[in-house]
Amino acid sequence: MGDGDAIKSSPTIAIWESNNKDGISLYIHLPFCESGCTYCGCNTRITKNHRVEQPYINAVLKEWNIYLNLLDDVPVIRELHLGGGTPTFFTAENLKLLIGGLLKTASIHPKAEFSFEAHPANTTVDHLEVLYTLGFRRLSLGVQDFDPKVQEIINRYQSFEQVKIVTQQARRIGYTSINFDLIYGLPLQTTHGLITTLHQVAELRPERIAFYSYAHVPWLKAGQRKFTEMDLPDAHEKSRLYATGRNLLKSFGYEEIGMDHFALPGDALIKAECAGKLHRNFMGYTQQHTQLLIGLGVSSISDSLYAFAQNVKVLEEYLEIIKQGELPVFKGHLLTDEDLIIRQHILDIMCNGYTGWNHHTQYSTAIFEGIERLQALADDELIRLNSRGLEVTPLGKRFLRNVCMCLDARLWQNKPTSQLFSMSI
Fold first, then answer.
1. What is the rounded CA–CA span in Å between residue 161 and residue 116?
2. Strands, E, within 170-321: which ranges?
3. Helical axes 125-133 vs 92-103, angle rounded to 10°
4. Under 8 Å CB-to-CB from 259, ≥6 apart: which residues?
5. How far apart are CA 345 and CA 347, in angstroms?
6. pLDDT confidence of residue 217
7. What angle do CA 50, 152, 232 make, to 5 degrees?
8. What is the pLDDT at residue 281?
9. What is the DSSP letter of 224?
10. Which three-class secondary structure string do you get for 48-72?
């Protein structure tokens, strides 16, 4: 189902029902940024007017109250993540109002994990201390690249010293896990510059590193038109950047996890992967596994395992719908039996590097079509493919996304009329 009105008018049980005793996940989208990063593909609103904070907080809390009326019991929060945008655009006091308003209407699971994204250039001790007192222990800093030329063209400025100060302050306060986001394939990025950045990152020793591929989508994000394909590394150079970064991170003692992620030995994600309990949702890789993820705020996506639903993407529209006391969902999809089979295969590959065809016994034409597409990857020794299932080889790990794409039936159905948002390398 792709009709938002149908979702809002249908019984909400199919979308929002969950096993509440195991806890739910919450994602809160905070879209505001004081300046626009030209590489960014996220839903953002650029403004220096901080008077937007309070009305937005009020709207998110009102949206949460709508969900509270749909849930039978007091929700048990197991996972909470603040994304954006720039969550640290908001003052520490306003973040306290937002999170405090959510938590006073919910229980917190004994194994709950709270995390937030932050810009190193505007994250203060107050931000860190207030969120720590509210239960946050994980911090993700958007670093991307320390090369001054790259920072200038992507309009994203934070010095190594600023990142160092925030990292040290967070550890002193008691944060137990710090993640750095890095990107390869950025305009004007060079191998030498990336190596310098990674050595600086290694000096600060974050527990986790996300090493993402830059997605060039100027037809979706006008800010990316401030540079051209001529400023970007070509396919060969981008592949070199990835290989250089991956090898360096492994030489620094980081272990690779699924797609795009690395962590130090002993990290909870590595333990989960070894135990076969690694999970991936819209917030990324996690050792938590909840059936229900509720997305709050403009453009947020919710997932009940059996359905997806996305909020409207325009801020003013979101605020107006909330004002009317309605859910701001504008589109969604109820998963078919075949969707569920494909989803589980893709999750198995993303999280474990293998999947078994007999693991899901129901017949699926789409899986047989996907196996035919996978044969080319098997010929290139990227996967081991047989009648029992597939296993990703060490060589194929960097092409994990390609493997999953072969099984994504809806991607292939829409391929002739759509452009891919993110390329594999």
1. 21
2. 177-184, 208-213, 255-257, 261-263, 279-281, 284-286, 293-296, 301-303, 307-311
3. 10
4. 350, 400, 401
5. 5
6. 73
7. 120
8. 85
9. G
10. CCHHHHHHHHHHHHHHHHHHHHHCC
How far lies 347's CA from each of 401, 410, 413, in Å?
11, 16, 20
3-state secondary structure of 14: helix
What backbone torsions phi and psi does residue 51 show, to the nearest 5 degrees? Answer: -70, -10
Give the distance from CA 415 to its chain's centroid.
23
Give the end-to-end CA distance of the chain in Å, rounded to a whole number. 32
The reported pTM is 0.89
Q: Residue 132 phi/psi, 5° resolution?
A: -65, -45
415: Cβ contacts below 8 Å, ≥ 6 apart:
none
Q: Kindly report the backbone phi and psi dihedral angles of residue 84, in degrees, each rounded to the nearest multiple of 5, phi listed first.
A: -165, -155
Domains of the chain by start residue, with CATH: 4-286 (3.80.30.20), 337-425 (1.10.10.920)
Ranges under pLDDT 50 in the chain: 1-18, 420-422
Q: Which of 169, 270, 214, 210 is nearest to 424 (CA)?
A: 214
Owner of token pair 């991956």:
246
Q: Is 289 helix (H, G, I), strand (E, B) or coil?
A: coil
At residue 425, the pLDDT reads 55
Going by the DSSP 8-state scheme, the letter that residue 336 receives in this structure is: P
**Cβ atoms within 10 Å, residue 263:** 24
Is the distance from CB of 102 to CB of 96 less than 8 angstroms? Answer: no
Residues 6+ apart with CB under 8 A from 399: 377, 382, 424, 425
Residues paired with 140 in a beta bridge = 117, 179
Q: In Å, how far are 70, 218, 261, 289, 384 from 190, measured between CA atoms? A: 51, 22, 21, 38, 34
Please report the pLDDT score of residue 20 as a whole number. Answer: 61
